[in-house]
Specification:
It contains twelve helices and eight strands. With about 300 residues, it is of the alpha/beta class. The structure holds guanosine-5'-triphosphate and magnesium ion.
């Protein structure tokens, strides 16, 4: 089930990589040196990006392994790719309730949808979840969250248009303490008059939580839209500079062949990818696992 979702979700990126391998016969009919530029092209066309592609090719050249079979080659390439993702993988840590997550990102990347998916995920694990509509910039956002909350059976803390998002976050934590919510998910705006305003507002939300209790928020998830490719990368740089982003959630991976951006994010930005969004429904969220992700790119149906 989990794997099928990943395989379907990664459909276009997988096709791009697998078809390229099959049709060009690289590392099979061509020599190592002839294969390298073709492989480079495959990586670039999947939006792995120049820096990450160069690094992967460098590691491949340095290996100087005499690949006898296609399996050998794929196995080794998979190892290189997994190592890149593993290098930034965040270790699981203990958090005391309410486990508090702030979602941030530019407008339309999928923040609200993703928080609803997370709410559903935690609710199914038996947690008492509160969704918080801290996007006070766009009233439709509050409405959107309320509707979803009702659908999945999770409480939603609503806000008024123009209300201070930091005040909403403050109320949310008060409410979590008094009503024993074990998970608090705070949705924020993606658009304000300027980027600077947005960053300042998000910092304020974070600081209010932090004043309430030193360990809050536990996670700040940056939501990035995979279909925007290299653009997502520059957003990651900007948000990382302004906020202590603890993880990336890469959405809309189902609609793009640009899934390779995940390697650029890991290698160049150094933020671990924590979840990936594979569709518009509440179940379409997968906890990210580097090994399974890479294996499913190459091995498809054979992954176990
Ligand atoms: N195919 C696909 N669509 C997605 C995914 N995640 C979100 N979407 C769609 O992307 C659109 C925008 O999603 P929202 O959750 O409203 O994005 P947002 O970041 O909250 O937007 P703003 O609040 O306006 O900044 C919606 O149509 C979602 O259904 C995904 O993983 N796959
Ligand atoms: Mg939203």
């Amino acid at each position: 089930m989990f794997l099928k979702k990943l395989l379907d979700g990664l459909g276009k990126t997988r096709e791009r990589i697998q078809e390229s391998f099959l049709s060009t016969g690289i590392f099979r009919t061509k020599s190592f040196n002839e294969s390298i530029p073709v492989f480079e092209e495959i990586l670039l066309s999947s939006d792995v990006g120049i820096t990450a592609t160069n690094e992967i090719i460098k590691r491949l050249r340095e290996s100087r392994i005499d690949y006898k079979t296609e399996e050998d080659t794929i196995h080794f390439i998979s190892k290189i790719l997994t190592n890149i993702l593993d290098a930034v993988e965040e270790k699981k840590r203990e958090t005391s309730p309410p486990y508090t997550i702030l979602s941030v990102g530019v407008n339309g990347t999928g923040k609200t949808t993703t928080l609803v998916k997370l709410a559903n995920h935690f609710k199914n694990k038996g947690e008492n979840v509160l969704l918080v509509a801290s996007d006070t910039y766009r009233p439709a956002g509050v409405e959107q969250l309320s509707i979803w909350g009702k659908m999945i059976g999770v409480d939603v803390l609503k806000s008024q248009k123009g209300q201070d998002p930091a005040a909403v976050a403050f109320d949310a934590i008060e409410s979590a303490f008094s009503k024993n919510y074990s998970v608090v998910l705070i949705d924020t705006a993606g658009r304000l008059h300027t980027k600077k305003n947005l960053m300042e507002e998000l910092k304020k939300v974070k600081n209010v939580l932090n004043k309430k209790r030193r360990d809050l928020p536990h996670d700040i998830f940056l939501v990035l839209d995979a279909t925007t490719g290299q653009n997502a990368l520059s957003q990651a740089e900007i948000f990382k500079d302004s906020l202590d982003v603890t993880g990336v959630i890469l959405t809309k991976i189902d609609g793009t062949a640009k899934g390779g951006i995940i390697f650029a994010i890991s290698l160049e930005v150094g933020i671990p990818v924590r979840y990936i969004g594979t569709g518009e429904n509440v179940e379409d969220l997968i906890e990210f696992d580097p090994k399974i992700f890479v294996a499913s790119l190459f091995e498809g149906e054979n992954v176990t």
